[in-house]
Design goal:
By secondary structure, the protein is mainly beta. It has two helices and eight strands. β4 and β5 form a beta hairpin.
Length: 121
């Protein structure tokens, strides 16, 4: 197992529950501008950021979600500002450049100190 990205949740924006209802999670490093805080889950910066690709795994704490497709810009924004939109719908083709699609399963409760990781098995 190789770690590609890892961040620990430091803040949960007020709009996050609405996005979760729509099977979507928006993440950013915790030093992004204030206007992005409401919509996102903020996390610590990842020490390493390697390219996430189809077949990798998203871990939310210990719950695993297989990556089904990755948008053209998702790895760039993940590396630069810890940002991507994660869509829990199992789509095999990216809806938008900044989206990482993962398998369709219930999203676990996100709390402070929840660990978000992308890994390669």
């Amino acid at each position: 197992m190789r770690g590609l990205f890892e961040g620990k949740v430091t803040k949960i924006g007020d709009m996050v529950p609405d996005f979760i209802q729509a099977a979507t999670l928006i993440i950013f490093n915790n030093d992004v501008p204030e206007e992005l805080h409401d919509m996102a889950v903020l996390h610590t910066k990842s020490a390493a950021t390697e390219t996430v690709q189809t077949g990798d795994v998203l871990l939310i704490d210990d719950q695993a979600f297989r990556v089904t497709s990755v948008g053209d810009k998702a790895n760039e924004t993940l590396k630069d500002i810890g940002h991507c939109t994660i869509k829990f719908d199992g789509s095999s083709s990216p809806e938008l450049p900044g989206i990482i699609h993962v398998e369709q399963k219930e999203i676990p409760q996100i709390q402070l100190d929840t660990v978000l990781k992308f890994i390669r098995e």
